[in-house]
Amino acid sequence: MEALKIHDALDRLLTQGPIRGQVHSVFQKALNIIDEENHLYTLLTSEMDDGPLAVTLSLKSFEESPFIKDQRILMTREEISIPGHRIPLENASRFSLLFPPYDPSPWCYRLIQETENILERENQHGDSPYERAVEKLLHERLMDLTDAFQKKDEDQILSSSKKLIGLGPGLTPSGDDVLLGMMLVLNLPGNPYEKYLPLFDQVLLEARDETNLLSFHGLARAREGFVRRNLLDFIKAILRDKEIEKEREQVRSIGHTSGQDILLGVLSLLKICLEKEK
């Protein structure tokens, strides 16, 4: 087992000193580490796309790896070490996760509409009374938030965002995923609503207690401008490309409904960005 790639932001952190923590959770293709200051880092299998503050390993699955939950772990710039094992980092290539500038093409609005139609036609949310109720509430609260952006009402942006935190079941609740999608757009340099991104610092203060740890850190990373490669590929494609099926389906495949909910957040805010410029 060897390290193939490391996020350059994590590499820079390691130049400041070692990271000590423990294995928080182990999934088939991803492993999460929590350090002594409650920050999250990730190890990924070789089949996963690049992730924020992550190291990609030459593994196809963590199911038969030496990593176990609650295991102590040490990361330095030279290696990752757990009891009985060390993984050198010296030969790992560095990768960046950078947002493109906000520069939508003339066909961007058409791609938004096409994707919205697909999400409506191929809805991944379930049909149980609970799932329908969550989805209804999700759309109502999202409408409140998009209305707040259109009115440039900072108080309403804050209150509507907070109402989405923790909404829905799962590792990453639907409301959190929608907010993450909206932060993808807010992170685009030059977007019409860029100045409202710092408001999410206040949203995150409440999010820590209103949602689960993994989802909170996903939102916190997005606020810092760090999201996984597949999400960046999609946002680049919908801004500039004429065909986006590959990038769209890569996002839709994330989790049970996470990909769909992230797309919903992206499309909702990107649409009003374009309408603002008309």
Give your account of this protein's structure:
This protein folds into 2 domains: 3-95, OB fold (Dihydrolipoamide Acetyltransferase, E2P) (Beta Barrel); 108-277, no CATH class. The protein contains 10 helices and 9 strands. It has helices spanning 8-15, 108-121, 129-151, 154-164, 174-186, 200-210, 213-223, 229-240, 245-252, 258-277, and strands at 3-7, 19-26, 30-35, 40-44, 54-57, 72-75, 79-82, 85-88, 93-95. A hairpin with a 3-residue loop joins β6 and β7 (79-82). α5 (174-186) packs parallel to α10. The longest helix has 23 residues, at 129-151. The N and C termini lie far apart (53 Å). The mean pLDDT is 94.
List keywords for this structure.
278 residues; OB fold (Dihydrolipoamide Acetyltransferase, E2P); alpha+beta; nine-stranded mixed sheet; 9 strands; 47% helix
Write the layout of secondary structure elements.
Elements: E1 3-7, H1 8-15, E2 19-26, E3 30-35, E4 40-44, E5 54-57, E6 72-75, E7 79-82, E8 85-88, E9 93-95, H2 108-121, H3 129-151, H4 154-164, H5 174-186, H6 200-210, H7 213-223, H8 229-240, H9 245-252, H10 258-277
Parallel strand pairs: 1-9, 4-5
Antiparallel strand pairs: 1-5, 2-3, 2-6, 3-4, 6-7, 7-8
Helix pairs in contact: 2-10, 3-4, 3-10, 4-6, 5-7, 5-10, 6-7, 8-9, 9-10
